[in-house]
Design goal:
With 417 residues, this protein is of the alpha+beta class. The chain contains eleven helices and 15 strands. The chain has helices spanning 3-22, 29-67, 71-82, 85-93, 100-108, 152-155, 212-217, 221-243, 277-285, 305-313, 329-335; strands at 130-131, 138-139, 158-162, 167-174, 193-199, 202-211, 265-269, 299-304, 315-318, 326-328, 340-343, 353-361, 370-382, 391-403, 410-416. It starts with a helix and ends with a strand.
């Protein structure tokens, strides 16, 4: 029992005694003394209870600072600490249901039996040097693959983790208008409309092949595979948000990216104008419409490598007296208030030229573009197909979708040939 609970119990008992004394028609001298003592103690308890409440709140705050969550979440995290990728792999390999910590974890997270929680691929603290038993090999920090930095979130795309089922995002597309009216003037009711975007799970996959020898020779192999698959998933999702799913088959593309999505504002720069400071600045400035963007600072720009190179290498002016003093197009644009980040792989050539940049217009952008990832993956461990070569095939199927409930919050700038 906590201090606060003990005080509240004492408070209840004394309140009951006070009530019994006050219910009498007459009090003896002894009873009047008892009533005074009880009243004084009740005042003291009131102060002590408030102090106990503050102390408990401080303790909860300390726990949150230390652990970042409540006791239930800490218990879940401890359970997660007992879960291993190997447990899921073994179940997949032996074609059986999960057991042990993995089964408990799926049940606690309300993830269907046999499915793999994608968030387990999140990075863990780096493990330092590992040494083999004979002391001849010292394995240093593992060097992971280098992936392209994700930029969809910088653009303003909202990343959502969703449960099994179809994710529906409603959006108001038309509504009331206001205007000054004469006293006797009536007005018809405004029509309004609500649209919706349905996001349905679409499969993508991360695939790895490793040798059985490596699993015995390299400590930390499982952790490295987990990090690699996680980053591969993130990069594939981020890339498709910009370019769409280039590898889709069938009548319809799986993912329609910002590069071709309808309703997205498009600005073009000709071969001549793309190297001119005023024309480049104008293309971006025209996106400030006073609605989706109220100022140039509301433009979230992700530039292609080609555009960044062009802006950084195009010299606008050279001081005639001091040849070392010059200004590039990039310097000019930044002085005008434009800032951007550069992402590789979004300047794919098209019939109209190459993409210069994608822009998110920041006013009301939350939910205007949504990337939903279903938090249930399928992890398949196949030691049979490459058994003769000592290879193990590891596949992670994950499901996600991308949509633009309000595409007017996004724009693209093209270089036209």
């Amino acid at each position: 029992m906590t201090i606060r609970q003990k005080l509240e119990l004492e408070q209840s008992e004394k309140r009951e005694k006070i009530g019994a004394l006050l219910g009498k028609d007459e009090l003896t001298e002894e009873e009047r003394g008892e009533l005074k003592t009880l009243t004084t103690r009740m005042q003291e308890i009131e102060v002590e209870v408030r102090a106990a409440i503050v102390a408990e709140e401080d303790a909860e705050k300390r726990a949150r600072l230390e652990h970042g969550d409540d006791p239930e979440a800490r218990e879940l995290r401890e359970l997660r600490g007992r879960v291993s990728l190997g447990g899921y792999l073994s179940a997949a390999q032996e074609q059986r249901g999960l057991d042990g910590a993995e089964a408990e974890y799926n049940e606690a997270m309300k993830i269907r039996p046999g499915r793999f929680p994608l968030h387990l691929l999140a990075p863990e603290p780096e493990k330092r040097t590992a040494t083999d038993t004979d002391g001849k090999v010292n394995q240093q920090s593992w060097i992971d693959r280098l992936f392209v930095q994700s930029m969809a979130a910088r653009l303003g795309v909202t990343m959502r983790s969703v449960s099994p089922g179809v994710a529906v995002y409603p959006v108001t597309t038309a509504g009331a208008t206001g205007g000054q009216r004469a006293k006797a003037e009536g007005k018809d009711t405004d029509a309004w409309a609500v649209g919706s975007k349905e996001l349905k799970p679409k499969r993508n996959a991360s695939h790895l092949v490793f040798s059985t020898e490596d699993s015995y020779r390299l400590p930390g192999l499982e952790d490295s595979l987990r990090r690699d698959m996680r980053m591969a998933v993130m990069e594939a999702v981020d890339s498709a948000i910009f370019k769409g799913d280039e590898g889709a088959t069938g009548a319809d593309a799986d993912i329609v990216g910002l590069q071709t999505a309808s309703g997205v504002t498009e600005k073009t720069l000709t071969q001549t104008n793309k190297a001119k400071a005023d024309k480049t600045h104008e293309a971006f400035l025209e996106l400030v419409d006073g609605k989706h963007a109220s100022g140039i600072e509301d433009l979230r720009i992700v530039a292609s490598v080609g555009a960044n190179t062009l802006w950084g290498s195009t010299v606008l002016a050279v001081d005639s007296e001091t040849a070392s003093v010059f200004k590039t197009l990039a310097m000019f644009l930044k002085e005008c208030g434009l800032t951007w980040a550069t992402r590789g792989g979004i300047d794919t050539a098209t019939t109209n030229g190459k993409f210069a940049a994608f822009v998110g217009l920041a006013r009301g952008i939350e939910g205007a573009g949504v990337a939903a990832v279903w938090d249930e993956g399928m992890l398949i461990r196949d030691p049979y197909s490459g058994a003769s070569k000592g290879e193990v095939n590891l596949t992670l199927n994950y499901f996600w979708d991308f949509a633009l409930p309000r595409p007017s919050n996004f724009a693209r700038v093209k270089f036209v040939t």
